[in-house]
Structure prediction request, 227 residues.
Amino acid sequence: MKYVKIIMTTKLSLPVPAAAAGALMMKTLALFLLFACLPCCFGQTGTNLLAAGDWSETVKDRGGEALRGRLLVYDGSTEPVTNHARVYLELQNVLQGAYGEPIEVYFAQGGADALHFEMRDQLDHPIDTEPALALIEAAPKRFWVTLPRESTVRLRADAPTERLTKREGLEIVDGRQICWTIPPSATNDFFLSATFTPSKDDPSPLNYHVWQGTLKLPKLKIPARKP
Prediction:
């Protein structure tokens, strides 16, 4: 045991070569920068989160490609003239294997006709809606979403609206320009759910497999925002 201790002490006392010391310093600096960035990254994705839904059931289409999704709702009250909630659709390609072909999903900004919201109370009664005033210059833009295997993408799913004055309560607007408003004095519960059926009539420009099917996105409870 004494001999081993002497050898360990001798090894630790040897000078570190300049090149090795420089490499060690660079690795330490890289780790420091990585951990310094983590709070910023997590803060941006978690800011003002009101509710996160469960993942839907995985749906396989005729080609065997599997997809699932969920809803997330963020408080958008920091915008100057609206209490418009920010609603996101997350899609996940659940098939494993790094060498498989990606899949594509056709999506329109704001969901358009592919994503339909539904709002109900705790007794499963539908909540009344009202028409929303759409932004003329913000017509839904359609685009392809490419998902490699084992990947997840987050898409803005609510529709933009135009208001001259800020209203009380939290507004949720879907792509059909249907609006629900949760008043700050609400005492009942509000549950948002949706179905997502992307278009299957548009061929992929990259010639990837176009996923086809319908996702039933589980409901999530949206709390009333107190004044």
